[in-house]
Design goal:
The complex is a heterodimer of chains A (261) and B (648).
Chain A (H helix, E strand, L loop, with lengths): L8 E5 L1 E3 L6 E3 L1 H14 L4 E6 L7 H5 L5 E6 L6 H11 L4 E5 L11 H9 L3 E12 L2 E7 L5 E7 L2 E5 L11 H6 L1 E5 L7 H4 L21 H9 L15 H14 L5
Parallel strand pairs in A: 1-4, 1-6, 4-5, 5-11, 6-10, 7-10
Antiparallel strand pairs in A: 2-3, 7-8, 8-9
Chain B lengths: L5 H25 L8 H20 L3 H26 L5 H26 L9 H23 L10 H23 L5 H11 L34 H8 L6 H5 L1 H4 L6 H13 L1 E2 L17 E2 L12 H5 L6 H5 L6 H15 L7 H11 L22 H4 L1 E7 L7 H16 L4 E3 L9 H5 L3 H16 L2 E7 L2 H10 L9 E3 H10 L13 E3 L13 H9 L23 H4 L7 H11 L4 E4 L2 H8 L7 E4 H8 L7 H15 L1
Parallel strand pairs in B: 3-4, 3-5, 5-6, 7-8, 8-9
Antiparallel strand pairs in B: 1-2
Helix pairs in contact in B: 1-3, 1-6, 1-8, 2-7, 3-4, 3-5, 4-5, 5-6, 7-8, 17-26, 21-22
The chains are: A alpha/beta (261), B mainly alpha (648).
The structure holds iron/sulfur cluster (SF4) (2 copies).
Chain lengths: 261, 648
């Protein structure tokens, strides 16, 4: 059934950064989003980027995956990407919008998909590994949980999903395809991100990691220690009850933890 | 008797058909992309290239060489004489006698061709090639007798019309094979295409004892590699057509021996199918191991991969150049394979297995392993190596290569540093400024990444002054020496085996005798066949008091370790591993140590399960045998007397 040319899929891509060399590249999760888009809609899938259109920043590598074009929403470094994207997405009619979980440089807060979902009024599915099929206005989405576990969700279109590193690897990019690919400008108005103006940015320092000492005697124990789900402290699983009751329970927890005041 | 006009008519008709066929063939080659050649100079050089260079290769098989000289020489001479004698009817003893002699020579040669064809080795193609010796015999015998009959050597009316008739049939058959077949794709095509191939070879530097092994750069604004037969340069197509299907390439190909789906002879024949259009149903030689013959189908404007050949065939090649070295027609298999790989990588993005990851790492970190670019010098943290950035000028620039990231290779590097220091060599390294040489990227078909790396390295090297580059990695050696020239980098590059040998002959280091069992030496492809360095490593081993037990395949016939051309990265499965076969070669001469001169060979051969001979790089053997006291004549000269005083 894939690729389905009638499906309107868009992937939002950002400039990535290699963890070892710091060099610009396609962002690993965003590239997986593009890969998923290509799988679902083939060449009809769209790819959208907010930025100054510097192709060396990673856009060439996305184009090299075989995309004929990337829609470029022109914005300089100070701009806030969310209103620009919102404006554009409102004007288009996508069924599924894919993003990475978070960017590899800059703010990398992972908030863009949430803010978009909130303002578009669409559901958001985080950390997906795959979309298995789309039928009758609903998609079967495979969500990645820790330690290789998966959860199957049925989500009504349209929705936004963030693609986890557990999703299928992005295909190799080819020099020739990148050379052919084009950036198509869409005229946009990019407001300056006021909040960020007041921030000062400094490179992050790696924090020491606490070593987890596994006192395992046998190989089987060590294997278990490495793979077992950590025992949660407290908490409970609520299966019974109405949505209202479940939501209240979550709200109470958030208030007691001080997340919501 | 027979009508006067019949024989001339036959010869003229055969010549005419040959001419039409030849023209048609030339048009097929011209479907390829243009490549300027020196037309007149090439044609003028052709006889010499044939007699000297080609026969230099053929003469490795003495019997076959003599056979070919007799048959081909006899044929060419006969043909030159047949025209005046039988077409223009010139009746002179000065022509008929030589014609008689030349047909006899040809006949003798053909007898030997026939004898070899009775029990042909597996590498030879069968099919129409089995018919060829008979055609040669028929041609020479018929023309001999006919000439005899027509001449005044014999008494009048000796001939009988039945005999003449039979001879005429013989003449027709012979002409059909030798002239008609030459133009129309029969086995004799090799003579016509081969002659022109020699004249218009894409690497004319190879003739006259020269060497030309560097790959040609891709124009990154133009066509990226070869997708269809017509994307090859026209003289590459011509080269394919020159193949005699002798299978010498097949016999030496390590991938073929390992049962991987590659046979260089079949590959060239498939290219011929592609340039002429059709299928490989008539191919009568060994197939690609594990693949049936008859599936390949193509035409000049049809994609090659998955029509004519499978991608696995192209990725099985280790670029060891054994086939090119062995090919009597001087066909360039490796160029063709890399051209097609370029299309797969640059256009299709289909580098198999770890290929994409390695290329990605090279792009992001300038090394194939994806290590931090700033950690290049970690291996030498305790060695206090002088940096080019500090010194600016040094006699020797030590090109460390990516071996710096690999623990086994680091032992080789450290051994070499020990030697450099012992000999008081004025050297320095680039440190973190060095990038991968681009060897692997280029051979995986990614010429874009290769060119980026090459330009970067050339720019770095331009900053410093040094008299030469020395490296322990034959791949970097080859690329720096032979492939950076296209990007403005011209250096005096030396492999460490050559360099250390020079130190020994200059007396700058003294060596102890090697204390171990039998040693054999494995020639790395990129040092030997690519750069012709067979002597220095052996001289160095001799300086260590080692008498090398040579393996059956050594020197220019050395069998690849399986590590070149990105083959361990693309990792196409076969029945055996190439490295296992190479270690078996060493076991056959009962070697306890295999001396190598390449970190890649070390990795491949050490990957063979024990028990097996020990694998030691030349640098390690030398470092072990260094007589440290005698190191640096200058320092010892000043140190000795004062020491002596103290003792007294
Ligand atoms: S390519 Fe060369 S070595 Fe191989 S079969 Fe043809 S002529 Fe012989
Ligand atoms: S270069 Fe080596 S591996 Fe490749 S086809 Fe030739 S002989 Fe075989």
């Amino acid at each position: 059934m894939w690729p389905d040319p009638d499906l309107k899929v868009a992937s939002l891509v950002s400039n990535g950064q290699h963890p070892k060399s710091g060099r610009s590249r396609r962002a690993s999760q965003d590239a997986r989003a593009v890969e998923l888009g290509l799988k679902m809609a083939g060449a009809a899938s769209r790819v959208i980027h907010v930025g100054d259109g510097d192709r060396e920043g990673g856009l060439d590598q996305y184009l090299g995956m075989g995309l004929p074009e990337i829609t470029l929403l022109n914005a300089d470094e100070q701009a806030d990407a969310v209103p620009v994207l919102l404006e554009y997405l409102k004007g288009a009619s996508f069924d599924i919008v894919l993003t990475g979980v978070h960017a590899e440089q800059g703010e990398a807060s992972g908030m863009v998909p949430y803010l978009l979902a909130e303002q578009l009024g669409w559901p958001l599915v985080s950390h997906i590994a795959d979309i298995r099929k789309v039928e009758g206005g609903r998609a079967e989405v495979l969500q990645a949980l820790p330690r290789g576990q998966r959860r199957l969700l049925r989500v009504p279109l349209p929705f936004i999903a963030t693609v986890d590193s557990a999703a299928a690897d992005a295909r190799q990019y080819a020099f020739g395809a990148a050379r052919r690919g084009r950036l198509v400008d869409a005229i946009t108005d990019a407001p300056v991100d006021q909040a960020r103006q007041e921030w000062t940015c400094a490179p992050a320092k790696p924090r020491p990691k606490r070593l987890h000492v596994a006192k395992a005697k046998s190989a089987a124990d060590r294997f278990k220690a490495a793979t077992a789900k950590p025992q949660g402290q407290g908490g409970s699983v609520i299966r019974e009850g109405t949505d209202q009751e479940k939501a209240t329970a979550i709200m109470e927890l958030l208030v007691s933890e001080g997340v919501v005041r | 008797m027979l009508p006067e006009w019949l024989l001339p008519a036959l010869v003229i008709m055969a010549l005419g058909l040959f001419a039409i066929g030849a023209l048609r063939r030339i048009l097929l080659w011209r479907a390829g992309r243009p490549e300027p050649v020196r037309l007149i100079a090439g044609l003028m050089a052709m006889p010499r290239r044939y007699l000297v260079d080609l026969h230099h290769v053929v003469a490795r098989d003495k019997a076959m060489s003599n056979t070919h000289v007799a048959t081909a020489g006899g044929f060419v001479l006969s043909m030159l004489l047949i025209i005046p004698v039988h077409v223009f009817g010139l009746d002179s003893r000065w022509l008929t006698l030589p014609l008689l002699v030349s047909t006899i020579i040809m006949f003798t040669g053909a007898v030997f061709v026939y004898r070899r064809r009775r029990n042909p080795p597996a590498r030879l193609s069968k099919g129409p090639w089995m018919r060829l010796p008979k055609s040669l015999l028929t041609f020479s015998a018929s023309f001999f007798l006919l000439t005899l009959l027509a001449s005044d050597v014999l008494p009048e009316n000796f001939g009988h019309w039945v005999l003449t008739g039979v001879l005429l049939i013989g003449v027709t058959l012979g002409l059909a094979e030798l002239l008609f077949g030459m133009g129309w794709g029969g086995p004799m095509k090799h003579a016509f295409a081969g002659a022109l191939h020699l004249a218009f070879h894409r690497r004319p530097e190879r003739f006259g004892g020269g060497r030309s092994t560097g790959l040609k750069p891709v124009d990154l604004d133009g066509m990226l590699g070869v997708a269809e037969p017509s994307d090859f340069k026209w003289n590459q197509l011509l080269g394919f057509d020159a193949c005699v299907q002798c299978g010498r390439c097949e016999a030496v190909c390590p991938a073929f021996a390992a049962g991987q789906p590659l046979n260089p002879k079949k590959l060239i024949q498939d290219m011929v199918v592609g340039l002429a259009g059709g299928t490989d149903a008539h191919y009568a030689g060994s197939p690609y191991p594990g693949r049936d013959v008859g599936q390949a189908q193509g035409s000049p404007h049809q994609p090659i991969v998955d029509g004519l050949v499978s991608a696995e065939t192209l990725w099985s090649c280790t670029t060891c150049r054994a086939c090119v070295e062995e090919c009597p027609m001087m066909i360039e298999h490796v160029d063709a394979i890399v051209d097609m790989r370029r299309h797969l990588t640059l256009e299709r993005g289909e580098t198999p297995n770890k290929g994409a990851e390695v290329l990605d790492n090279l792009i992001a970190t300038d090394n194939p392993g994806g290590y931090e670019p700033d950690s290049r010098m970690n291996w030498a943290a305790d060695l206090a190596l002088p940096l080019m950035a500090d010194k600016q000028v040094a006699d020797v620039l030590f090109w460390v290569s990516d071996g710096c990231f690999d623990m086994r290779s680091q032992r080789i590097l450290r051994a070499f540093v020990k030697i450099l220091k012992a000999a008081n060599v004025d050297f320095a390294v680039l440190g973190n400024e060095e990038c991968d040489s681009g060897d692997v990227a280029r051979r995986l078909g990614d010429d874009a990444t290769f060119q980026t790396l090459a330009r970067h390295n050339v720019a770095t090297l331009r900053k410093y002054r040094f008299s030469r580059i020395v490296t322990t990695d034959p791949h970097a050696f080859h690329v720096l020496k032979n492939e950076y020239g296209d990007f403005g980098g011209h250096y005096d590059v030396m492999h460490h085996s050559t360099f250390i040998n020079e130190l020994v002959t200059q007396g700058r280091i003294q060596l102890d005798r090697f204390k171990g069992g039998a040693v054999t030496y494995h020639d790395p492809c990129y040092l030997g066949r690519y750069n012709g360095e067979y002597e220095s490593p052996r001289a160095l081993l001799a300086a260590l008091g080692i008498q090398v037990s040579e393996m059956e395949r050594s020197g220019y016939r050395s069998r690849c370790c399986g590590g070149g051309g990105g083959a361990p990265i693309t990792d196409i499965p076969g029945e055996h591993r190439i490295a296992d076969m190479r270690v078996d070669d060493a076991r056959k001469v009962e070697a306890e140590t295999i001396a190598v001169a390449c970190q890649q060979c070390t990795a491949m051969l050490e990957g063979v399960v024990e028990p097996r001979p020990e694998i030691r790089d030349l640098a390690e053997l030398v470092a072990e045998g260094l007589i440290v006291d005698a190191a640096g004549p200058a320092s010892t000269a000043t140190a000795r007397p004062s020491l002596a005083e103290e003792v007294h």
